[in-house]
Amino acid sequence: MTYTNDEGVPSGALVRSLMLLAENYNIDLEFESYRLEDQESAHEKFDIVITMYGENEYMFEHFSQTESFLDVDMAAHISPELYKETQSIVDSFHKAKKVGILEYLFVNYEALDERIENGDVVLYPNIDVMLDDYKNGTIDIAIFTESASVYAMNYVGDNNQTPTRIELVIPVPFLFSNEIAADYVPIFNVMIDNVSPIEFDNLLLNESSLFLPSIEVSLIDELVKYWYVIVIIVLLSIGVLAYIYIKQERKKNAQIQKAYNTDALTDLPSFANFREMADKILIEAQPNEYEIISFDIDLFKSINSYYSMRTGTDVLIVIANALKEVFEGSPAVVCRRMGDQFVILRKIGERGEIKGIYSRYILPEIRKVIGKNYNVSMSFGIIAIEDTKQKVSEIISYADEARICGKGEHSTTFIDFTPKMLKEYKNKINVTFRMEKALADREFVAFYQPKIDFKTHEVGGAEALVRWFPKTGEMIYPGDFIEVFEKNGFIKHLDMYMFEEVCKFIKQNKKDMKVPIISTNLSAITVLDDKTIDTMLTLLSKYYLTTKEIELEVTESAIIGAEDQFLDQVKRLKIAGFIVSIDDFGAGVSSLNRLSAIEADVIKLDKAFFDLKDQGGRSNIVVEDVVTMAKHLDMKIVAEGVETYAQALWLQGLGCDLAQGYYFARPMEEEKFKEVLIKDKIFDIKNVSNLMD
Ligand code: C2E
Ligand code: CA
Ligand code: CA
User: Fold this and answer.
1) In sequence order, which ranges of 465-550 are alpha helices (DSSP H)?
2) Cβ–Cβ contacts within 10 Å for residue 2, how many?
3) Which of 194, 224, 249, 333 has the greatest number of C-beta atoms within 10 Å?
């Protein structure tokens, strides 16, 4: 945030708004100043960026936006000469030759252009340049945000020309870095909705009033100087003034009302307005009478970068127009919520109808703008409204979950929200909220699962597996949080934490017992991060360990589209000296070709390979082939998920080196694992009874 107060603490209405949310929800935030010039790296450095200039291409690409928490009003300064000539704001716009506006404010320039019948819009990179041009008459109207308007008045020094509020509104969302924090967006949307707009407005008012005294004082000075004139004028024209005042207030209020109610870009209802209308409809609705549909364009930002921002804007406008046409006069409300995301509230209808609206009304219009060659697909998420008392924005965030489920299909999808999604969504929000504190409080604990050497029958290795023990509540398995962490990027921190836990374990115990090579898991996201290798090397030296004491289990899943980068990173891990193991081989993406492409030391055969149903079937041949190939490539083979004697025997016969699975031992806490190591336990493959403790 750019503004700081005298003590250098970030301040201003936007910062206060975020603080308000943070206070309401007990979130600790650290603020740091951020300047527009530094924006190229902002997405790497900050979780949240607060700026009014959010919707430029960089921001589109690297940030996800919450819904707007503040709508900033704009004001026009009309040059005294022009105003004298026209005596009307509307006519001033008609007559103006040049109208200046700051280029980084995301307003609907075209709508503005249309209003200026005989002139042009001039875009300025900064406020002072624009003010200079306004002063020397190059532009006859200058447009600012209302708060900047005060600055402008002081700068120009012309107080007899009062800026007028105009029908342009800039929505201000919080921006969440796609790299680190995008998952918080739905949570913040709900939080924003729970604060009344009046509270945000009050913040704005309080902050803005800081600027006001200087002007009030100068006005009073003027009044004192000419008091007798004023008295006469006031007495004479009190009736006229009252009349004008009432008339103007009405007009001004109507303008403000319109700005609040409509989305300036598309002329659809604003989201605030949508919510109000939806609330009214839902009060009288029956359960399952209405549905909410949330949709957006897949990879919308690529339209912006492939064509231009303006094309992107045009696409949004034609979609809006198509929706207006379709839903005109029907009991439905439609709005553009933010960016390229639209929301529809309508009576529950056939799924085919929505598909028809898409293919007959929306798609053809988009094609008119971008041509036939560019392939555009959209994602629709749909939820039937069962609980009509639920907050509309909460219902929308469920529809959003369904919408997001269809992403990555490369075709248009229509997905219904299911109870399973609801469970996952709640879990996701819960996990996301708690993860950072949990890591700081050391709630994540390493469990160890031994790997049995098929030749010596001793513990020949072990895998560290994370368990989450919250201060309150039950232990949580990785299945309930790893995926969430992979999506929001937090997995890097967890992986490095686990790496360090393993370092500590080895360092503390290797003088007292024979500690085998211990493996730890690195998600693809962690592997792809350039900083990972340095972090691990630093940790190793902190505990006086070498790269040969820890093995890294990496998976190729979840990196679709970055396969080559992944291979490069694995190469770098190898060059740094690490032992690399390919996890989950055989589950999904891996193939024999991949095996030779990737430079790894170990391959872990996924448990799916020894599915009992399939024993003796085709998968046997595949496993045999993989083992043979791995042997040729000089790789060690670990079979994981071994649950029966039959499997163990068979895998041993095939030539696997190590076995890991419930048949031998489950993942266990550190103390138990130490006992196993101290006893130098022998795991007899035949004799089941002595295997588990
Ligand atoms: P994984 O790396 O494939 O780990 C093996 C999983 O199989 C473990 O589940 C383990 O408890 C389970 N397992 C072991 N033997 C058997 C068996 O005989 N039968 C069956 N059915 N399952 C067996 P867990 O601990 O729940 O971990 C699940 C996944 O979570 C792991 O799969 C791994 O992908 C991920 N994970 C765990 N810890 C970490 C971590 O620190 N970082 C990262 N990035 N991922 C982790
Ligand atoms: Ca693993
Ligand atoms: Ca595995």
Assistant:
1) 482-488, 491-509, 524-528, 531-542
2) 15
3) 333
Q: HSE on the CB side for 527, CA within 13 Å?
A: 31
Q: Cβ of 147: how many Cβ atoms within 10 Å?
A: 18
522 alpha carbon, closest ligand: 1
CA of 465 to the centre of ligand 1 (A): 6
What distance in angstroms lies between residue 526's CA and the mean position of ligand 3's atoms?
A: 16
As given in the structure block, the two tokens for residue 13 are: 């209405």
Rounded to a whole number of angstroms, the distance between the first and last alpha carbons of the chain is: 58
Cα 662 to averaged position of ligand 3 atoms, centre (Å): 13
Of 433 and 524, the structure prediction assigns the larger pLDDT to 524
The ligand 1 atom at the shortest distance from the C-alpha of residue 485 is 44
Residue nearest to atom 25 of ligand 1 (CA): 465
> Can you tell me whether residue 338 is helix, strand or coil?
strand
Where does the pLDDT of residue 168 fall: very low under 50, low under 70, confident under 90, or very high at 90 and above? low
Predicted confidence at residue 617, as pLDDT, reads 62
Angle between helices 491-509 and 531-542 (to 10 degrees): 20
Atom of ligand 1 nearest to the CA of 491: 44
**Rounded mean pLDDT of the chain?**
83
Q: Which residues contact 533 (CB under 8 A, 6 or more apart)?
A: 572, 573, 576
Q: Which atom of ligand 1 is nearest to the CA of 606?
A: 3
Q: Which residues pair with 70 in a beta bridge?
A: 172
Let me know: does 335 contact 268? Beta carbons within 8 Å: yes
**How far away, in angstroms, is 560 Cα from ligand 3 center?**
18
Q: Which of 1-15, 191-205, 272-286 has the lowest mean pLDDT?
A: 1-15
Nearest-angstrom CA–CA distance, 53 and 171? 10
Q: Two tokens at 211?
A: 């600027």
Q: What pLDDT shows up at residue 658? A: 97
What protein residues have CB closer than 5 angstroms to ion ligand 2? 521, 553, 583
Pick from 54, 13, 109, 71: nearest CA to 273? 71
For 386, the token pair is 């069962």
Q: What was the pLDDT predicted at 297?
A: 93
- Look at the block and give the residue holding tokens 């103006």: 96
How many whole angstroms separate alpha carbon 35 and alpha carbon 75?
24
